[in-house]
Design brief:
heterodimer, A: alpha/beta, Syntaxin Binding Protein 1, Chain A, domain 2, 24 helices, 47% helix, 13% strand, B: alpha+beta, Methylamine Dehydrogenase, Chain H, 6 domains, four-stranded antiparallel beta sheet, 30 strands, 46% helix, Vps16_C (chain B), WD40_repeat_dom_sf (chain B)
């Protein structure tokens, strides 16, 4: 069970991107001769597990450690730190080195910053008077392929940093990553962006192209036709709703981390009591590829069917005589048995969560809030959650959803709920509230909400959604069509122009432009008719659209996009990139900060 | 025939031909090599000449001042400088790899000059010992030098790019060595330089390294060596013995390769390798060339000469001419040897016939048909070795004539050779005068050649050449721009900018910032500012703007670029440079810079951040900081719970509270801080009275719960009233607290106190969660909503009751859901089915 996803079927050559990253890392290790201790910051380590196998690192004389404030125990005289450029991580390195010094240990230190060295980090080293003791290098890892159609920039805190701290480092990172892609796949000729951050990314990207142009003459045809950038800020409703696709639910309850989940071995029917086991979840698993994007209800049925047909085949096999080819077919089916068992186990485990009344109540409430018809019911429900001291993230998730759809709460309610929150969970959460207010996620109402208009105009709530044979993306939330994907649907089909009025109701500016060699093309106006002209690449493959979510994307949204892709008459393949794959809980958690 | 005249100039040594064409007549005037110290750079480089102060010479009509004069290989003057350095006699002088002239004087000081006779600062010292003991002799290699003092101590500079003198091991000799040679670091095992010393009266060679001395050649040598020279590749050593023999050995002196008697036992003045096959020995007016076998070749000179070894021969510099002594290349031999019938010679001959319209041309071609390609190849190759343009042309014509008749010859070979020859002829031409041979050119590489041209300020040729060879012109234009700035002190900024931009735009992606930096270094800050404005790369532009003091522009450009790292760079720069208040003012006007400063300072400069907020009147942010600080007391072990230290903590919170109160937008925060302080006080009291340290830092709700769990209902009530806890919340808290301690009696009593403000749901939920069905049943019937009743019954597994309640609620969807809950239970399922049928609701699942 390889955790590193198989990227053979990717619409662009993602393998080369991954191999490049592998090679760069190996080169770093090769250049430091002999045995060395590689100390990785844990978050980065998680990302790297999608790039390179640990065994490959060990082949290069590496002893692996995780970075923490505690000192490292190793016999190696060479220590290589591989860390994201975050000052707090540098602090750990400093305390490590100071410890070695106090023990009189002479070691050679290398610090490799990911993706690049920064002034702030070097400043920290300088202030600790260590900058002369370490050799500084860079490991330019800007992008990690998560699956054959999903890329991640691995910027966990991007959304919060932009919205609360005003730190827009992540936008530069995103632009740089896209620019790097352009060096491999050509300048992307069409660009559409919605939201403040997205438009800024587009701006930085164009700047980079001006400063360090991708030589467009080398490439006959750019491999990516269109780039769509979308701010998470534009649609904060979707990530806060509970995802109802199979992969989405797995993430909600079991936290998919870098394409795998960790759970008790007993759940997977393994004999090791009390031990944890890791289950990789990516398209290498054929069955998972088939069912990951379906509504969970349907998944249960499919799994049941598969199991029964397998059982039937088995009975037939044992009772009647079979021809060789029939036997062969049966054996082939048997090969998929481990996958079926795996997903039956997982699905069964999921139902223990989905059948809980609290979950059903929450789903009910989410729909009521999204419907935006019964303010008081929602308010009372949330108030009661606070009184019952339900987990804070659960409460905040609903509260933000409530505030966002109402574009804030009336001052009286706003103050009242904040007071109740502080009373129930402690005054230290004032910072969390402050953060949420700064980000506009939980705030005082200042203007009328236009959610109802948006909902209606974009048909976000779809009655009679058939989850088994869906004809609309609304199946991913059993009746709610994610706003973000609706926008992308429009952007792909006809560009921004027809939905301009609605875009104006949503936060941030929007942008539609042509780039590179195509920027002078007179056919700017006819751009909206993309599905006719440039949509087809000569060799018959569909043209490719790169959709970038600035601030994170959920599995449900990815599923919805894949659904769009699979629709007949769709002229494009999609590739999805995001600062991070998030869900309501992880997104809310980034804003949580205790005073203490 | 033409062929004959060519070969007539050759000399035969053993079985090889040598030739010695004149490259240039020397154009210098009044230079007598005998009176001068001379340093000539290999690869056709410049020649440095200075009057030898170790000899007594007669001054004719010249100044007594010594002058260092630089010439090119044709004796064309490049530059000169008056030599008036202290430090004693000039011991040695040599050009290193990047064409810097290195001059070692007696006291161990090293003066360096560039091609324009400008002193390169700083001067290098060989160290205290050299200063005290005086340098007696020195030996150079490509990028280093080794000096020997009068007390026979050795010091070396391994690399002039990092000029640090390193002492070598003490050779422990009393008399100065007879001769000295070095093996370059790149050819030694250790990677460090090895110095070979020929010692008086001792038949060995001492090899001195940094960490030791070895004696080599014991038993091999019969007497001390007088003179020695190491071959180019460091493998062979040619030496002149005490008894007048030329000895060629391996450089580790383990085997003798050649040993030949010379006609003199006096050591030669100069000894040099000619390529790898012959050794040249020079005595006054006689130059002797010795090969591995056969008679040596004699050349007679009636004027002094200097031998300049090259990779493929030796240049011979005399007062009047520059010659090149070289083994005749094989291709040339095959064409021009007298009576040669090689295919190449016949091809060359065929061309001659063809030109004279003779049918013999065709005959020749037929004769060599099968070996035509190699004949063509030989002609191409030979053309490359010629310095004479007309002969190059004839050979190339022969090649292209032959090529027309062969089908399988690599066609671009001729083109390629033409390209190389054009370059070579260009550098051979007058004024440039670099007599590079094709082999030297290939070894030197085009990029180094272009670098040398640039250094000699031959920018136009360098530019043309790099364009012609398809190389990046950036280096050339960049160097030109910098030289132009240095040389144009009198041209006004705006005019100079136009001149520069005109050329800089030729090269896409050139670094304007680098040119601007140079302008700044030359004291032209305004020009620098104008130039840097044209730099498209902010990562280059911003640091430069900072260095020329344009902080505000830098901050603006950095912000525009979106590169946060650049903004931080500017931020830290300004932070360090300006007074706090001025700094605060600058960043306050720039939101991105301000936000980044706050983010950074929040983690690392708390106090400073407070100053910032105070200066900008953001009192609420100061308050947040203070409030945050109040928690530091918790982390601090001195502030253990219950100790009087809670005082300062509460004071801090109260200070925060009053700061919040300053602005009316922060009434809520002010109130929250006030409540927090109040809560801490009450919690301390509770800890004192209950003697349990479990209250501090729990929330108000948790405090109430803890009180109830401990049975302290009065305290719970007090907290409730102090903080005006609503009845709703109070009920939830108390019910759950009682359920936690399973005080079902108290719970029942509580339910009967009065009609609960939010109904009996809390009671039901608490009991169900505690898995006390019997208790739950007490309260379920009291629930007002039949749907809630149905669900509650369902949760404790009472199917019948659940179904009844659901049917009361007349809710089909609920029925369906309940049915699903009891899916495994067939009996239960049927109950729902019948009920639903009775209600005749549309099916829902």
């Amino acid at each position: 069970m390889a955790q590193i996803p198989n990227l053979d079927n990717a619409p662009i050559n993602l393998i080369s991107i991954r191999e490049q990253s592998q090679k760069e890392l190996i080169n770093i290790l090769k250049n430091i001769r002999g045995k060395k201790c590689l100390v990785i910051d844990p978050k980065l380590g998680d990302s790297l597990s999608l790039i390179i196998q640990t065994s490959l690192l060990k082949e290069h004389g590496v002893e692996l450690r995780h970075l923490s404030a505690d000192h490292i125990q190793t016999d190696c005289t060479k220590v290589v730190y591989l860390v994201r450029s975050q000052p707090n991580l540098i602090r750990h390195i400093c305390s490590n080195i100071h410890h070695d010094e106090s023990k009189g240990l002479q070691r050679e230190y290398h610090v490799y910053f990911v993706p690049r060295r920064t002034v702030v980090c070097e400043k920290v080293l300088e202030e600790e008077k260590l900058h002369n003791m370490v050799t500084i290098g860079e490991y330019p890892l800007y992008i990690v392929p998560m699956d054959e159609d999903v890329l991640s920039f691995e910027l966990d805190l991007a959304y919060k940093e932009c919205q609360v701290d005003g730190d827009t480092s992540s936008l530069w990172h995103i632009a740089k990553a896209i620019h790097k892609l352009e060096f491999s796949f050509g300048v992307i000729p069409n660009l559409r962006a919605k939201g403040k951050a997205s438009v800024r990314v587009a701006d930085i990207l164009n700047r980079m192209q001006a400063e360090e142009p991708v030589n467009s003459s080398d490439m006959v045809m750019p491999e990516i036709n269109t780039l769509i950038l979308l701010d998470r800020e534009v649609d904060m409703v979707t990530p806060l709703c509970s995802q109802l696709t199979y992969e989405g639910l797995l993430d909600e309850f079991l936290n998919i981390k870098n394409g795998s989940i960790e759970l008790d071995a007993s759940i997977m029917g393994l004999q090791q009591e009390g031990k944890k086991t890791k289950v990789p979840l990516n398209s290498t698993d054929k069955l998972f590829k088939e069912i990951r994007d379906l509504n969970f209800e349907v998944v249960v049925q499919i799994l049941r069917q598969k199991a029964t047909s397998m059982k039937q085949d088995y009975t037939e096999m044992t009772t009647t005589s079979q021809s060789v080819s029939e036997l062969k077919d049966f054996v082939k089916k048997l090969n998929s048995l481990p996958e079926i068992t795996r997903h039956i186990n997982l699905a069964q485990h999921l139902t223990t969560f989905t059948s809980k009344p609290s979950f059903l109540g929450q789903l009910d409430m989410e729909h009521t809030i999204v419907e935006s018809q019964s303010y008081d019911i929602c308010f009372d429900y949330i108030e009661e959650l606070i009184h019952k001291q339900e987990p804070l993230t659960t409460v905040l998730r609903l509260l933000i959803l409530f505030s966002v759809t109402n574009s804030g709460l009336p001052k009286k309610h706003f103050d009242y709920l904040r007071r109740e929150l502080l009373h129930s969970y402690g005054s230290e959460h004032i910072t969390t509230l402050n953060n949420l207010e700064k980000a506009g996620l939980f705030k005082k109402q200042e203007s009328r909400s236009n959610w109802l208009t948006i909902k209606r105009a974009l048909q976000l709530v779809v009655e009679d959604t058939d989850t088994a044979n869906p004809n609309d993306i609304s199946y991913v939330f059993s009746g709610y069509a994610p706003l973000s994907i609706r926008l992308i649907q429009h952007a792909i089909r006809s560009g921004w122009r027809p939905v301009e009025e609605i875009l104006k109701l949503l936060p941030g500016p929007h942008l539609e432009t042509k780039r590179g060699a195509f920027s002078n093309s007179p056919s700017f106006d006819s751009l909206s008719g993309v599905s006719t002209g440039i949509a087809k690449v000569p060799d018959g493959r569909r043209a490719l659209v790169l959709v970038v979510f600035v601030g994170g994307v959920t599995f449900a949204e990815i599923s919805a996009l894949r659904f769009l892709c699979s629709q007949e008459g769709m002229a494009y393949d999609l590739i999805i990139a995001a600062t991070k794959i998030v869900d309501g809980q992880t997104l809310v958690e980034t804003f949580m900060e205790k005073l203490g | 025939m033409a062929n004959v005249s060519v070969a007539a100039e050759w000399q035969l040594l053993y079985n090889r031909y040598y030739r010695k064409p004149e490259l240039y007549p020397m154009r210098w005037k009044h230079v007598d090599l005998a009176r001068h110290k001379v340093a000539a750079a290999p690869f056709g480089g410049p020649v440095a000449v200075i009057r030898d102060d170790s000899k007594i010479v007669q001054l004719h009509a010249e100044s007594a001042l010594r002058k260092l004069r630089l010439f090119n290989s044709a004796g064309h003057p490049l530059a000169d400088a008056v030599w008036r350095h202290p430090g004693g006699r000039l011991i040695g002088m040599s050009w290193n790899d990047d064409l810097t002239l290195v001059c070692v004087v007696q006291d161990g000081t090293i003066y360096r000059y560039d091609l324009h006779a400008q002193l390169v600062e700083p001067n290098i010292s060989m160290g205290k010992e050299c200063f005290e003991q005086n340098v007696a002799d020195c030996a150079f290699w490509g990028n280093g030098v080794v000096c020997i003092t009068e007390q026979n101590q050795l010091f070396c500079i391994p690399d002039f790019r990092n000029p640090k003198p390193v002492p070598l091991a003490d050779p422990m000799i009393d008399e100065p060595p007879r001769c000295i040679a070095v093996i370059e670091p790149q050819y030694t095992m250790s990677g460090n330089v090895e110095v070979l010393l020929g010692v008086a009266d001792d038949p060995v060679v001492l090899v001195v390294e940094e960490d030791g001395v070895q004696r080599l050649g014991e038993g091999l040598l019969r007497g001390p060596l007088q003179k020695m020279v190491v071959s180019r590749d460091g493998k062979w050593l040619a030496s002149f013995t005490h008894d007048g023999r030329l000895l060629v050995t391996t450089s580790d002196l383990t085997g003798i390769i050649i040993e030949r008697e010379c006609e003199s036992s006096l050591p030669p003045e100069q000894i040099a390798w000619c390529g790898m096959d012959a050794v040249l020995l020079y005595w006054d007016d006689m130059l002797l060339m010795m090969g591995p076998d056969g008679d040596p070749v004699h050349y007679l000179y009636d004027e002094p000469i200097i031998l300049i070894p090259e990779c493929d021969g030796v240049r011979i510099l005399s007062n009047t001419s520059m010659e090149f002594l070289q083994r005749v290349p094989d291709s040339t031999v095959s064409i021009f040897t007298i009576g040669s019938t090689s295919p190449a010679a016949l091809l060359y001959d065929a061309l001659d016939h063809f030109d004279r319209r003779s049918a013999k041309a065709d005959e020749n071609l037929r004769l060599i048909k099968p070996s035509l390609p190699e004949a063509v190849e030989a002609c191409v190759d030979a053309s490359g070795h010629e310095f004479d343009v007309s002969r190059q042309r004839t050979l190339l014509r022969a090649a292209s004539y032959g090529q027309a008749f062969c089908s399988n010859f690599q066609r671009d070979r001729i083109q390629e050779m033409c390209k190389i020859l054009r370059v070579l002829n260009a550098v051979h031409s007058p004024e440039i005068d670099i007599p590079l041979s094709i082999q030297q050119y290939k070894l030197l590489s085009p990029s180094v050649l272009i670098g040398r041209l640039i250094n000699a300020h031959r920018h136009l040729l360098a530019l043309r050449m790099s364009e012609y060879l398809g190389m990046n012109q950036e280096v050339v234009i960049m160097h030109w721009a910098c030289s132009k700035i240095t040389a144009s002190l009198s041209i006004p900024d705006a005019t100079l900018l136009d001149i520069l931009l005109d050329k800089l735009k030729l090269c896409k992606g050139i670094s304007y910032a680098a040119v601007a930096a140079h302008a700044d270094k030359n004291g032209r800050r305004k020009l620098a500012a104008m130039l840097v404005d044209h730099e498209p790369r902010s990562s280059k532009q911003v640091p430069l703007l900072l260095s020329i003091g344009e902080e505000d522009t830098a901050l603006m450009k950095a912000t525009e670029s979106g590169d946060i790292d650049l903004v931080y760079l500017v931020l830290f720069h300004i932070w360090q440079k300006r007074q706090s208040l001025e700094f605060f003012g600058t960043i306050q006007a720039r939101p991105l810079a301000r936000d980044l400063f706050i983010t950074y300072a929040r983690c690392y400069k708390h106090e400073y951040l407070k100053d910032f907020f105070l200066s900008t009147g953001q009192l609420q942010d100061v308050a947040f900081l203070l409030w945050k600080e109040s928690w530091e007391f918790v982390k601090n072990p001195m502030a253990s719970k219950g100790s009087p230290l809670h005082g300062p903590r509460i004071k801090l919170i109260e200070k925060a509270q009053s700061l919040f109160a300053e602005t009316k937008e922060h009434v809520f925060e002010s109130k929250a801080a006030e409540e927090h302080a109040k809560l801490l006080r009450i919690q301390h009291e509770l800890e004192v009275t209950t003697k349990q340290a479990i209250f501090v830092d729990s929330s108000i709700s948790d405090t109430i719960r803890t009180c109830i769990v401990l049975g302290n209902h009065r305290a719970a009530m007090r907290v409730k009233t102090e903080f005006k806890v609503s009845e709703k919340r109070w009920y939830w808290l108390k019910v759950f607290a009682l359920a936690t301690i399973k005080d079902w009696v108290a719970l029942e009593k509580f339910s009967k106190e009065k009609r609960p403000p939010i109904g009996y749901r809390p009671f039901v939920e608490a009991c169900i969660e505690a898995d006390e069905k019997a208790e739950a049943i007490k309260y379920i019937p009291k629930l007002a909503d039949p749907r809630e009743r149905a669900e509650s019954y369902a949760r404790i597994g009472l199917v019948k009751e659940a179904a009844d309640a659901a049917s009361q609620a007349k809710d089909g969807e609920l029925l369906g859901r309940l049915k699903l809950t009891f899916a495994q239970n067939a009996a239960a399922s049927s109950i729902f089915d019948t009920l639903r049928d009775r209600l005749s609701f549309p099916g829902a699942s």
